[in-house]
Amino acid sequence: MKVVETELPGVLIVEPDRFGDDRGFFQEIWHARRYAGAGIPGDFVQDNLSLSGHGVLRGLHFQNPNGQGKLVYVLQGEVFDVAVDIRDGSPGFGAWTGATLSADNGRQLYIPAGFAHGFCVTGETALFAYKCTDFFDRESEGTIRWDDPRIGIDWPISDPLVSGKDAAAPLLSAIDRAQLPRYEGGR
User: Fold this and answer.
1) Residue 34 is assigned to a structural domain of this protein
2) pLDDT tens string for the chain (187 positions)?
3) Residues catalogued as catalytic
4) Which of 54, 44, 63, 66 lies closest to 129 in space, CA to CA?
5) Does a structural domain hold residue 31?
6) Total number of domains in the chain
7) CATH number of the CATH domain containing 145
8) What residue numbers bound the domain in which 140 lies?
9) Do the Cβ atoms of 109 and 72 come closer than 8 Å?
C-alpha cells in the first residue's frame, strides 16, 4: 500500500495494492492495522454509498460538531474528489486539494474531520463509497458553495448538476466562524 500526503496536512491519497490476473483483481479496501500505521484511524462507525450520473456534483459538505473523517473510494466509474480545510484558525484555512478516484485506479482519499468534502462525477456514472468516523447528524451538517471563488476549486466540469441545497449554500466567508470546526494544531 502506498500513501501519498497531499498539501493539506492529514488529507491522504491511499493507493492500495492490487493483485490481478486474467480473471480480474483482488484489493483490500480496509485493513485496520495497515491503515492505522499510515495515520488513518480505524474508528469508522458508518458506511455510505451513492450512485450518481455524469456531471453530478455533491458538496461541499461538513459536520460541526460531530465532525466526520471519511475514507472515500469509487466502486464503479470515476470522480474528481475534493477536500477543503475549513478549520477556523488553520494556516491552510480555505485551501483545497483534489484527486481523481476511479474503479480502475483503485485510489482512496482520507479526509479528516474538520474538512469539507465534495466530488463530481467525471465518468458516465459513479458508485461512490465512504467510511465515516461519526454518524450522520442533520443538526450538525453544513454546506459551502461548490463554486466559492475564494476557495477556487478547479472542477473538471463546467456546468454541474447540483442539488437545490448545494446550489443555495453560503460562501465560506458568509459562515459564522463559530459554526466551523476549530483548528487544534498539528493534523
Assistant:
1) no
2) 999 999 999 999 999 999 999 999 999 999 999 999 999 987 999 999 999 999 999 999 999 999 999 999 999 999 999 999 999 999 999 999 999 999 999 999 999 999 999 999 999 999 999 999 999 999 999 999 999 999 999 999 989 999 999 999 999 999 999 999 999 876 5
3) 61, 130
4) 44
5) no
6) 1
7) 2.60.120.10
8) 2-17+43-179
9) yes
